[in-house]
Amino acid sequence: MSLMSARQWSSCVVLGVVASSVLLASSCLASGSPSSNHSTSGSGHAVVSIAGGGYSGYALLGDGHVWAWGDDLEGQIGVAGQWYQTTVPVEVSDLGGVIAIAGGMNTGYALLRDGTVWAWGDDSQNELGNAGNRPRQVPVQVHPLSKIVALDAGAFSVYALRRDGTVWTWGDNSLGQLGTGSPDPGPGTPHELTRLGRVAALAGGSSNGYALLRDGTVWAWGDNSFGQLGVSPCPSSGGPRSTCLFSSVPVEVPGISGAIALASGVDTVYALLRDGTVWAWGDNSLGQLGRRTLHSSSDTPQRVAGLDHIVAIAAGSETGYALDRDGNLWAWGYGAYGQLGDASAGNRDVPVRVRKVSHVIEVAGGGDMAYALDREGNLWAWGYGGYGQLGNGYLVSLDVPTPVVGLPNR
């Protein structure tokens, strides 16, 4: 896959209840970490949450403002008059009161304290949710959404959870990833996804949507080319696995129970269970399943080798990340651009320790790069940096974590 492929993607969600509602961002926090509830009160300029887009990074500060860096070809940095790239963080324009963030392939998203959702950047697939089909450099409100408590983004599709438990989707639907029962293009604005109940959290993959229910089960819809729905025949087609290319309605992923977090890469999915183990299914062409094998995809969830006592997970485009209870970070899968963080540029079919970072409380993946936030408030980045998405002032790739510079008080 080329670096410019639109299918490079990542996402992660964690199940957690905040004032009787679930709140998430497209990064994963360690349980009990200072920022695990995404609160912004009293934190000032401290980074409280992070997210990765295709080739851009995002940081939510304690004052409710968002900073961004990296590729800006479609306006995804959120600064008027800037259309290229920035190698250090800049503040997203006209945005405050933010409590959660997410990144699409070329689009940024923010959930505000008042329950509204705002978006900026690419709109070629109606990712902005306003049927405008043109990029926006500054945030615009996604209508008619209100009372939203959680959101996450796939490459070109977006998912939002309302306080009443309903799920709303918008954006690309070419492989049924909006879950509407048909792969037909939607109206360009959010609409309700049915057939799901008691949803706790949502996740978006490259061409898939995922829902984590309060009973610990996982449901999936969209592309199934590599078995990322976790099922053989799709209920909507009734045909054999080899002819089941997608499902435009949610189907339950068999073999997963007690899940508390989800992460999705391009065509590989990860689930963190209550017992601290990580399970994976989908594409394994680069070792993404972490099973000591390559080139054998699986539509059956399998345990990632060597991981125990895990408290958070995340995914890059084709790389998995896991955070253990001691604050150590582990990575596996695609590593050609150093995104494994182990001072190598090769693929790994079993998890390896990410170097130079410790006491990590949050991890986020993007398109061949990753971010980690430690308990001291330091933000680290590594992997592909050709668009400045490592936030260190340079257009270089790095195979070990390096500090993101230029944030307030950093």
Give a short summary of the structure:
It contains no helices and 32 strands.
Give a structural overview.
The chain has a single domain, classed as Regulator of chromosome condensation 1/beta-lactamase-inhibitor protein II (Methylamine Dehydrogenase, Chain H, 7 Propeller), CATH 2.130.10.30. It has no helices and 32 strands. It has strands at residues 11-14, 17-18, 21-22, 28-29, 47-52, 56-61, 66-71, 85-91, 98-103, 107-112, 117-121, 136-141, 148-153, 157-162, 167-171, 191-193, 199-204, 208-213, 218-223, 246-252, 259-264, 268-273, 278-282, 298-303, 310-315, 319-324, 329-333, 348-353, 360-365, 369-374, 379-383, 398-403. Mean pLDDT is 88; it is low at 1-7, 15-26, 31-42 and 237-243.
Share of β-strand residues: 35-45%
Show unreliable segments. 1-7, 15-26, 31-42, 237-243
CATH homologous superfamily label: Regulator of chromosome condensation 1/beta-lactamase-inhibitor protein II
Secondary-structure content class = mainly beta
Number of helices: 0
Please name the CATH topology: Methylamine Dehydrogenase, Chain H
- Main sheet? 5 strands, antiparallel
Level-1 CATH class name: Mainly Beta
Distance between the termini: 35 Å
Shape assignment:
globular
Q: Mean pLDDT, as a whole number?
A: 88
Give the tally of structural domains.
1
The residue fraction in helices comes out at: under 10%
Count the beta strands: 32
Subunit arrangement of the protein: single chain
Looking across the biggest beta sheet, what order are the strands in? Answer: 1-21-22-23-24
| Cα gyration radius (Å) | 19 Å
Secondary-structure arrangement, i.e. CATH architecture: 7 Propeller
